[in-house]
Amino acid sequence: MRIxxxxxxxxxxxxxxxxxxxxxxxRIHTVAFYNFENLFDTINDPNTxxxxxxxxxxxxxxxxxxQKKLTNLARVLSEIGSANNPESPTFIGGxxxxxxxxxxxxxxQPNLADKMYGIIHFDSPDKRGIDVALLYRKNFFQPTSYAxxxxxxxxxxxxxxxxxxxxxxxxxxxxPKNKRVYTRDQLxxxxxxxxxxxxxxxxxxPSRSGxxxxxxxxxxxxxxxxxxxxxxxxxxNPKAKVITMGxxxxxxxxxxxxxxxxxxxxxMEVPPFGIFNPFEDMAKKGMGTIAHRDAWDIFDQIMISETxxxxxxxxxxxxxxxxxxxxxxxxxxxxxxxxxxRHSATEIGxxxxxxxxxxxxxxxx
Length: 365
Prior knowledge:
There is one protein chain. The chain is α+β, with helices and mostly antiparallel strands. It has helices spanning about 65-80, 100-105, 210-235, 255-260, 280-285; strands at about 10-15, 25-40, 90-95, 115-120, 130-135, 140-150, 155, 175, 180, 185-195, 195-205, 240-245, 265, 275, 290, 295, 300-305, 315-325, 355-365. Helix 1 packs across helix 2 and helix 3 (about 210-235) packs parallel to helix 4 (about 255-260). The chain is globular, with a radius of gyration of 20 Å. Residues about 1-20 and about 165 have low confidence and may be disordered.
């Protein structure tokens, strides 16, 4: 059996300097989320609408292109959060994933192969065949339970007046029988991070297909389901530490996040059992993870329970959050200059989203 070296990173911070003037030392773990944007293999699955992502499909998706996509993603994933933690993330939530097989291929890429990533993934009812998943480093985190929790939303009969339809690849399919909108499940994972129980929820909420206003109730229902999951965890353990992350297809200020989930922008405003969203202030400053018509928004967010905001760093607590928008992820030419570097007819890019991350820290005794 291979014995892995201790990979802790010692972080020097000025949180509460000791009386002798020396800074405290902290263990640090990075939690990341990334929309992998159409991570499909080249094989046609007869049970999903993945025909565009095959060699004969509209994207002319070949094995070489698929391999380049995996190489690109592995580079990004290995570097997220590296400004303060040289180790690759302990947790990576992802979405727009076709199946477990593409994740197996991903974690075997040279940039990730020695990181000992495990995979938690379920096939969701999304008819395009895209799912959410969690990658975790086995030498730091031991999962004890996981479940995919379905979101049931149904198409309404009316369309708001003056609604503008937004362009999106992510078009949910509707059942002709009961008008159910088939979208992604929410993935709940519970386990121990170096002996401390932690819960993680990975999301990809319904898209804005058909327009933001018309589709908003679907995302509000997703936010309510997220809140219900968190409530259930807190009923079992009032001190439960919860991290919820994902591509929400809404900004931090939208109803799904602010009302249905109840996330707060300021730590001091978060009540017991409440949720803190560090990305709302970033959005107010004009930062973004995705751009549309030269307007930036933060659809990709990581939020935490009030129990991760304590000042006692004898156990893991939230430190800070960020958007990983390093230069090689940015389009440098053309009409989309400055946008995330996604696929084009001539180039296999990375994603139309920038990844996001937070740090968890604990004082090293």
